[in-house]
Amino acid sequence: MAKNGLIIAGLSSGSGKTTVTLGLIRALCRQKADISAAKCGPDYIDCGFLTAASGRPAITLDEFAMPDEMLRALAGGADGETLIIEGVMGLFDGTDGGRGSTAALANKLRIGVILVIDARHQAQTAAAIAAGLASELPEGASLAGVILNHIASSRHEQLIRQALNARSITCFGALPSADEVTVPSRHLGLVQSADLATEGRLDAIIEAAANLVAKHIDCAGVLAAATPLMRNPTGQNVCSAINPPGQHIAMAHDPAFGFHYAHMLAGWRDAGAQLSVFSPLNDEAPSPDANFIFLPGGYPELHLPTLTNATTFIEALITASEKNIPIYGECGGFMMLGRQIIDAEGTAFPVAGLLPLETSFAARRLHLGYRVLKALHRLDWLGAAPLNAHEFHYTTALVADGDALFSAADAAGSPIGDIGLIRGSVAGSYAHIIA
After folding, report:
1. What are the phi and psi torsion angles at 367 (to 5°)?
2. What per-residue confidence (pLDDT) applies to 384?
3. Strand pairing class (387-393; 432-433)
4. Which residues of the chain carry a pLDDT beneath 70?
5. How many other C-beta atoms are found inside a 10 Å radius of the C-beta of residue 255?
6. DSSP for 270-299, written as a single string
7. Of 47, 171, 219, 331, which one is the catalytic site residue?
8. Which of 124, 258, 412, 413 could bond to 163 as cystine, CB 3.0-4.6 Å?
9. pLDDT for 175-201, tens place per residue?
10. What pLDDT digit, counting tens, does each position of 156-173 carry?
11. Is 29 a catalytic residue?
């Protein structure tokens, strides 16, 4: 179980915190430190990289979506002695009132923050920014120090270090620019770790980041800066997001359907459910013994020629629906349950046809934000309590007929209408349920 923790934060997205976090975790693991990893916020892609860097399953910690008891139980239940958490966006960036931000999570867990500063266009100002942010941190969080990124020269580093020393702010190191540690991106964020692993590039990127960090950062000092994690006063182990939707859950899992939350699956297993996986891209059918089929999100729009011809997979879904076996899809999985998906070039590909839904990647529009959901239909596995979820996609539903699945509100509680669809035993929506 994790005893200590710290958060690697940034001034904004693109500051270098992913590179620093991956390199730091791998470098410390090389030194036989007992490390586990987590990601702040609703992200499910970065956890794959953090898992690869640490060699242990990374967890999601979302201060907006998860109750405090759940946050602390998940953090404290991580395998390694020290939990290193990658922040989200800028230090204070979240939803209304700063909920879900890196600073808010640091406050709830009562741990320190190491700030990664992209110093390409500044010198002493970097120290003033760090001092200002430190003064704005909530009472339970503290600035442990900074790591400078994209340092141009030893003189550049010296100027910033002097300014940091004058403000009694620790500098754990300074990294030069290095193209070989850049993680490639696509429309929903980073390219999935599984894709890079298949291409043989994932470990090379992490190793390059670790080499850079080991050379330029005081890793022992960073490890010593970790502080004890806040525990639940009653010792409650509240890690389950929602009840298992079935006794045997068959889950799609491959590069087209790779977006899922590890805490959700762990909670189902802990409650006694059996999980089996299948690959739609390999035209595999879910287990015939399953009494629930889950299609998580992912990138089906990048694999439509293969998926539209996955007849074994599609016919198995149709057969399961005819037997009234519950089938649930999130985002990309929801799209797959519709009649057709239109790719970026405007070509329509027929898919499962189980919901009166047609989606388009050609009609691109960003849909992004937390969602608070209430089920409009009695589904035992969803329960009656509101669900906290997150929506992030560029595809648009051109046709969505029939019965909606949820009524939805945004993070501020303002209603945004009904979302999702349900027909018979088949249901889904664009939202990813977190807790």
Report:
1. -120, 115
2. 76
3. antiparallel
4. 179-200, 234-241
5. 18
6. HTT-EEEEE-GGGTPPPPTT-SEEEE-BS-
7. 331
8. 124
9. 998 766 666 554 444 455 555 655 557
10. 999 999 999 999 999 999
11. no
Which of 97, 86, 3, 20 has the alpha carbon at shortest distance from 48?
86
Write the pLDDT tens digit of every residue in 233-279. 765 556 566 789 999 999 999 999 999 999 999 989 989 999 999 99
- Smallest Cα–Cα separation from 226: which of 43, 63, 74, 33? 33
pTM, two decimals, is 0.92
End-to-end CA distance of the chain: 22
Question: What is the pLDDT at residue 279?
Answer: 98
Return the C-alpha torsion angle 358, 359, 362, 364, nearest 10.
Answer: 140
CA distance linking residue 134 with residue 130, whole number of Å: 6
Domains in the chain: ranges and CATH: 4-228 (3.40.50.300), 248-433 (3.40.50.880)
Contacts of residue 59, Cβ cutoff 8 Å, sequence gap at least 6: 36, 37, 38, 39, 47, 74, 75, 78, 262, 263
Closest CA to 253 of 290, 292, 282, 291: 282
